[in-house]
């Protein structure tokens, strides 16, 4: 469990450092992501982005777990 948490922390640090570059690729603004804008309120629900990130992380963890 400790090793998993350390790896998760490292992945979060790397993603945090790469976030400005990932934003330029359009990650976070994919078709299927829900954006509701009202007076003074903006609600953003990144459904498709979350599914894509989950699939990529699952594939990576499966490959490294072998």
UniProtKB/TrEMBL annotation:
Q: What are the protein's UniProt keywords?
A: Membrane, Transmembrane, Transmembrane helix
Keyword field contains Iron: no
Q: Does the keyword Amino-acid biosynthesis apply?
A: no
Which InterPro entries does the entry link to? DUF2905 (IPR021320)
Chain ranges passing through the membrane: 5-23, 43-64
Q: What is this protein called?
A: DUF2905 domain-containing protein
């Amino acid at each position: 469990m400790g090793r998993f948490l350390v790896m998760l922390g490292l992945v979060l640090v790397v993603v945090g450092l790469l976030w400005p570059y990932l934003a330029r690729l359009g990650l976070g603004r994919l078709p299927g992501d829900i954006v509701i804008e009202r007076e003074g309120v903006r609600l953003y629900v990144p459904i498709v982005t979350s599914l894509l990130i989950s699939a990529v992380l699952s594939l990576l963890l499966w490959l490294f777990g072998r």
